[in-house]
Amino acid sequence: MADEQEVQQLELLCKQLYESQDSAQRADAEKALVGFQDSPDTLAKCQLLLDRGDSCYAQLLAATTLTKLVSRSAQGLSLQQRIDIRNYVLNYLATRPKLSNFVVQALVTLFARISKLGWFDTYKDDFVFRNVVADISKFLQGSVEHCMIGVQLLSQLTCEMNQISETDANRSLTKHRKIASSFRDTQLFEIFRLSCSLLGTARENCKSLNFSDEGQHGLMTQLLRLAQNCLTFDFIGTSTDESSDDLCTVQIPTSWRPAFLDFTTLKLFFDLYHSLPNTLSSLALSCLVQIASVRRSLFSNTERAKFLTHLVNGVKHILQNPQGLSDPGNYHEFCRLLARLKSNYQLGELVMVENYPEAIQLIAKFTVESLTMWQFAPNSVHYLLSLWQRMVASVPYVKATEPHLLETYTPEVTNAYITSRLESVAVVVRDGLEDPLDDLGMVQQQLEQLSVIGRCEYQKTCTLLVQLFDQAARSYQELMTSPVATQQIDITIQEGRLTWLVYIIGSAIGGRMAFNSNEEHDAMDGELVCRVLQLMNLTDSRLAQGGCEKLELAMLSFFEQFRKIYVGDQVQKNSKVYRRLQDVLGLSDEGMVLSVFIRKIITNLKYWGRSEQIISKTLQLLNDLSVGYSCVRKLVKLEEVQFMLNNHTSEHFPFLGNAVAVTEMRCRSMFYTSLGRLLMVDLGEDEDRFQSFMLPLTASFENIGTMLASAESPMFAADEAKKALIGLARDLRGLAFAFNTKTSYMMLFDWVYPSYTPILLHAIDLWYHDPQVTTPVLKLFAELVQNRSQRLQFDVSSPNGILLFREASKVICSYGSRILNVDVPKDQMYPMKLKGISICFSMLKAALCGSYVNFGVFRLYGDEALDNALNTFVKLLLSIPQSDLLDYPKLSQTYYILLECLAQDHMSFLSTLEPQVFLYILSSISEGLTALDTMVCTGCCATLDHIVTYLFKQLTQKVGGYPGKKARVGLVPANDMFLKVLEVHPEILQQILSTVLNVIMFEDCRNQWSMSRPLLGLILLNEDYFNQMRENIIRSQPPDKQPAMAQWFENLMDGIERNLLTKNRDRFTQNLSMFRRDINDSLKGPNMNTSSVSDMMTS
User: Fold this and answer.
1) Alpha-carbon distance 214 to 229, whole Å?
2) What are the start-end ranges of the H helices in 511-548?
3) In the chain, N or C terminus with fewer CB closer than 10 Å?
4) How far apart are CA 986 and CA 993, in angstroms?
5) Whole-angstrom distance, CA of residue 923 vs CA of residue 990
6) Rounded to an integer, what distance in angstroms lies between the CA atom of residue 928 and that of residue 900?
7) b/e burial code for range 363-373 (CB count within 10 A of at least 16 → b)
């Protein structure tokens, strides 16, 4: 009776969770149900809930809870229990076909999960979870509902086998692949053939089927999904990223050849597309996309030619009957199908298809129509352009005798793209539609494709662009100079058209690399460049009255392309582009062209301070120009550049002023990095030049110092001081990054220390809780202590290295001691607290690894700077929950790199840590060993190696010492706190040992060498545990496998001595790679019992 009440209570909670409008009530219900999922008698309760079947929400809860139970480690449920659950689910679905959709889906998922995880389990010599098709075929012979559930079961199972769930990711990837491969080899083809035969039956009866009936429509959807899941299966375990859609080749196994050689499968899906309604036909097309992408090596050359002929004819037939393509779903899949024609077949093969001329004409017509209808399915255009881009790119390599006809049709495509974009402008402006130019990512992607397409018959492309540009520029000029008041809308339309043209001209020039350009093409580029520069002169002259932001962004994109192709160290200076520029604009050499660039940059920085996008793109252009070796030397000679070096103040460049939002100050670092590079070209040791360059920054610092001195008084202008400081810290960080030589860095260091570092420290004391201030200041210090290009080479008599470290230590301690007391909500934890801590970690790491400070000196002279910094690191570390260390990638990288540095050079400090700190560090290493980020994992291995080596050394010295060796007088004996901790908690290193061994034996180990280094030390420190683990692993194998496993373990330790000398380690590393290879080879074999081994090791 109590059970009855409890079950009713659960049903009520489910109802509240899914239906209640009150969020508090929903949260309480969720809390209670999570408790239910973790209780010991969950299994029985789930069965009760399902048996009662009163509430669909309760059924959902039961199914999802069972799925979680099954997904936990194998010890949770016995084999018999799992077999019972599987059979219960099948019976339940068979006897209650009218369940709610979401309940069916949850039960189907449970069946798939339990089948996958038990794939290698045997009961009375039978693989009990594998007789899937036999059990499910009973469903397929029943009613429409039963049939639908049967297909869903197969479909979900195929999906489940293909997906790496969280539990699999934490377990062994090898095991997942082994199950997936076994399923592929034993069941998948049969399931695919079954889906094709059922679809074939449906095709025959298409006339009599009623697709408006939900059941029949649902069944067809599930059938097509099943076929699609079979074709999208990850056959060879490359688990490609689904977003890299275009590069896809479907690695169909050779045993499937019959399904593709007789072309009936291909014909089946083309027929289904033509006979099914729009709601279903797109699924048939997506199956065709996969079939068109079958790996080339499945066929011989003649077979492939036949297959391609059928494919092209099918495509041609769709284009001759295009009614279905008005549906966006069909249209999108069809565009993908067209793109696959070229990504999987060569142009030389396509032109040999007998109907190629007709097909390419139809495809060109379809492309032109699609481009003209620019509002319809804009996301599909990418696929069409990629087909043409790939075909044009292949032209130089075609050796076929048949003509490819691209010179006839490609110009039509180029023309359609350009004219349709220009025509779209008026519609967008007049109807207030969403402007495609707002999605710059998509525009850039399309322009990259167009840059290749437009180079086919480039003469025609250029003629068209010149004609359209002249027309648009003339209209624009007339509107601007017209004495009659013109409507703003007309000006906006012309600006929009010019924006498109400038982007397209930029991409046309950028396409030069892809082709072996000839001089005529360069001369045509010259025509285009002249026009854009003339337009720029016109728009710049009117900037005082306001300008067009989108057009300016297009200009910057054009400059970027022009810079890549025609400016810089690799360009031939006698290019015809320059001749044309001289004739029209009088720009005779690269220096004059660079001055146009710099003038444009200065103009933008002067007039566009309000637009962050323009400022950041302009600064990116300046940055790119300042990187090239010869380019930067030419720039320095320009008056414009000297002007910038002498006048970098907010008066000339408003974005450097205090009126700008704090978030937009980020780009100031980049500006000063570029200025720093330009300054360094002629700076040498000229300190006067440096001081005069720094004058604006000196004035700014003095001003902030004065303000902060009155911080306690009511007159303190906090906001103004804060903004000025943020800007200044960003400026200095940019300069510090650029000054990568010893002399330039020393000038900066002498300038900032000791005059201005106290001001920065004072700011941290004042605003420690505000990351807008602390982040730039901490990053500035992290840059100053960075030994970039060995710039921190101080003279023998200079104390600067120690002074610099002292300042860094003060900053870390000042920030660290204060931030520890700041409470922030969980969702603000990273930006408000962890980000600053992470920068402190990276600052400390840079200082410790910079090799410009002898750290032994600090303790010798009683200087606490080092100890303070390290102790602050410990306090900060303990304030971070262990889970956060790996949840925030930037934090985990700075922490683990710093830890490796400490273990390498500061073991004496680590060995004095309190037990709980040492345990925290060890457990963070243990977590890091299985992290997905290889850098973190490799860092953990190195850290662990240093720690284990230190421990081993301590132990051997403690036990034996060396005969005749005297202790050094006055030397403090090494602290053996580590050893005491490990005596109390031996399980920590044992756990790490089993983790490392598990990764090496059973997982996709990406850094085997790094893993092998600490393993030998771990084994030598835990010999008894290692022997016991070895016995367990050997015993868990089937009897016939046990001798082999024992032999592999013998070989692993063969010739290994009880020391950690390099020679011994190298021998162990070699043994280990043989050991791993043997284990992996056997895993690929038929019946190795991996589940019990790896589960035992991870438990």
Assistant:
1) 22
2) 519-541
3) N
4) 11
5) 12
6) 12
7) bbebbbebbee
The CA distance from 208 to 405, in Å, is 44
Q: Which residues contact 121 (CB under 8 A, 6 or more apart)?
A: 79, 82, 127, 128, 129, 1091
Region at 967 (left for phi over 0; alpha for psi -120 to 50; beta for the rest): beta
- In this prediction, residue 1092 carries a pLDDT of 40
pLDDT at 1089: 44
pLDDT of residue 913: 87
Helix axes 458-481, 519-541, angle to 10 degrees: 10
Name the 3-class secondary structure at 127. strand
pLDDT of residue 391: 93
For residue 460, what pLDDT is reported? 93
Q: Provide the 8-state DSSP code for 960.
A: T
Q: Between vectors from CA 299 to CA 391 and to CA 335, what angle results, nearest 5°?
A: 35
C-alpha distances (whole Å) from 846 to each of 748, 750, 808, 837, 853 are 18, 20, 10, 14, 11
**Measured between alpha carbons, how far is 42 from 36 in angstroms, rounded to an integer?**
7
- Output the CA torsion sign for 221, 226, 228, 229: positive
φ/ψ of 299, rounded to 5, equals: -115, 155
* Residues, the chain: 1099
Q: What is the pLDDT of residues 389-424, one digit of tens each?
A: 999 998 888 887 888 889 999 999 999 999 999 999
> So what's the pLDDT on residue 875?
94
Question: In the chain, which stretches have pLDDT less than 50?
Answer: 1, 74, 240-243, 246, 514-515, 967-973, 1086-1099
**Nearest one of 330, 315, 189, 197 to 252, comparing CA atoms:** 189
d(CA 297, CA 303): 10
User: Side chain identity at 707, as an amino acid letter?
Assistant: M
Specify the residue for token string 């940059």: 601
- Class of residue 496 by CB neighbours under 10 A (exposed 0-12, middle 13-18, buried 19+): buried
Q: Vertex 158, ends 157 and 161: CA angle to 5°? A: 85
Euclidean distance between CA atoms 110 and 103, whole angstroms: 11
Secondary structure in 3-state letters for 165-223: CHHHHHCCHHHHHHHHHHHHHHHHHHHHHHHHHHHHHHHHCCCCCCCCCHHHHHHHHHH
> H-helix or E-strand containing 845?
helix 835-849
- Cis link prior to 754 (omega < 30° from 0)? yes
Amino acid type, 1018: L
Which residues, including other chains, have CB under 8 Å from residue 1072's CB and lie 6 or more apart?
Answer: 1000, 1008, 1012, 1015, 1052
Residues 6+ apart with CB under 8 A from 359: 312, 315, 316, 319, 353
Which tokens hold the place of 892?
């985990």
Token pair of 614, please?
């323009």
* pLDDT of the residue at 572: 57
Query: The tokens 């920054």 sit on which residue?
Result: 697
One-letter amino acid of 203: R
Q: Which two tokens stand for residue 866?
A: 């080092």
User: d(Cα 767, Cα 696) in Å, to the nearest integer?
Assistant: 24
Paired strand residues for 127: 122
Provide the token pair at 926.
């243990």
> DSSP string covering 469-511, please?
HHHHHHHHHHHHH-SSPPPHHHHHHHHHHHHHHHHHHHHHHHT
Closest CA to 978 of 929, 899, 909: 909
Residue 444 has which token pair?
Answer: 């850039």
